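dude i think i finally got it to work??
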Amino acid sequence: MYKKLVLFFLGSIIFTITNAQQSKDVLFTIDGSPVYISEFKRVYLKNIHLVKDDTQKNIDKYLDLFVNYKLKLKEAKSLGLDKKETYLRELEGYKKQLAMGYLTDTRTSETLIKEAYERSLEQVNASHILIEVKPNAPAKDTLAAYQKIIEARNKINKGEPFDVVAKTYSEDPSVINNRGDLGWFSVFKMVYPFEQAAYNTKVGEVSNPFRTQFGYHILKVNGREKKQGEVTVAHIMVAINKNRSSDEAEKRIKEINQQLLQGVSFASLAKQYSDDPSTAIEGGKIRRFGQGALNSEEFEKVAFGLKEPEEISKPVLTQYGWHIIQLIEKHPPKTFEEEKTGLTEKVKRDSRSKLVTESFIQSLKKKYSIVENEKAIGYFKETIPETFFKEEWSFPEDKILKEELFSIKKEKYLYEDFVQFLQINQRQTGEFVDVTAFVEEMYKKYESSVLLKYYEEHLEEDNEDFANVIGEYRDGLLFFDLMESKIWNISKTDSIGLKKYYEAQKENYAQNETYKIIKASSSKHKAIDEVRELLRKQKTIEEIKKEINKENMALVLFSEEELIKGEDMFPEDFSIEKGGITVAKEDNFITLIMVKEIVPSRIKTFEEIKGEVINDFQESIEKQWLGQLKNKYSVKINERILKKAKKELSI
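look at this
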């Protein structure tokens, strides 16, 4: 057993050393600058499925292309293109944009997205009690609020009705009307800590106290049910307002309902009589919605209670007036994959995104072994006066300011750096009244901002995937600038050279003999025979169409095309004479082809072939230029490492 463990341990070391060594194996050098086998393999494997030309899948051929690419990059740097302001600015912009995807905790984010989806399938009915306290309130105010919410919870636990206690204790202004009852809600409808408590408390139970930005809460879950997906409905509304009493509205909706019972179109009645102008124009149609989406529980209950499309409800009363609802379509809940993109964006915008940031910061603290400097926090709590929030403040001279607050690898951050951060944020202290809370919060923010900035600045060192992507983009930008200046722009500026190239190579731009044809296709033999006879009588295509395709019945499909000898596929036994007719059959489909005109082979004009000439001209210049680069720079291939690469890539 011990021997096996030793062999396994040694094998792991050898495997690690081999992999590390392989990444440093030099495949070739350009003027002594190394290009490693690891980069070649990565690029080859990444791009090989995009290569359509099988010859370029050959490793030797691909290596030639790769060497040429590296030669061009060497030349770009020699010309100083990597120092251009526009290049550096574009690279920095892309780098920042790309880095955003790496400054997050992907695992936590995925967990929150999946959690949001699961919760979106349910809705919760809950009541709550709120005791207000500001997020950064002094400790005595926080304690007083907590004790009050505990007192309210104890009364409920002793048997007092929740709504009675809510009316007595809750500081939510709406308690006067709803006695703490919030009705039905689902994911994203409440702040995240409230949502957490609602979904984690059993039906009939009262939660433990929890805190949000509004203060301390307790809640009682009154009910929980699966959501029924979404519905699309139409409605006719008769509003109750200053111009129409409740009785008048009820009478009107009953009159409309009588019309529906007599078979009058729902959409027509909605357009003429509905008091909801935003939907009346569409026959009363409301955009599809899910449970909890509308501010009317009565309306939703009836809408989701309809079973079959076109089923019409009885008149229903809501806070807006009377409605008659027609079901258009029921939509089952969407799958996670269907909802994922939308949920991802909602999580990013929601307060729960702070959990992702906090988790990522914690991972960075662990990565860089950052420990909270309690001595420093204590020093600043004692040193900063209570007047800090009311007047300009300068930190007193103190040698301790040169001491280390914390460090990330070789980078040191001092007390005085934190002082500067405090002074920058001094004007943003409106939410604070307590120095202790302010210092603790600012220390966390400073530590987080430093960690994020350091990680972003060193992403290329820390993250191989990021380094590869940004490296490819960096080289791609250089390559584009170089090719634009050396090759692509020449064809735009050197019109004389382009014309000379065309004159010298014009034999390469010959068009072979071309056959202008009329093509007729059909599954009906008789129809094709009729077309043949009409063509022999020299009828035009339009005349034949009128004769064959009668009463809007397209028995035969007609087209006029060109077939170029040596380029296009010709049917078997194709007649190459003018007026010659060929009939080809494939399964039950018959195609007749008649040669209308024969155009002799010729040299295409410059204007006609200009795009192709430009492309060939650029390739010619590039070929000459590459020859110059190969003379300018010394390329040395490591044949031993190349042989190794071929063996590994052929597996």
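Residues 1-22 have pLDDT under 50 and may be disordered.
im so relieved honestly
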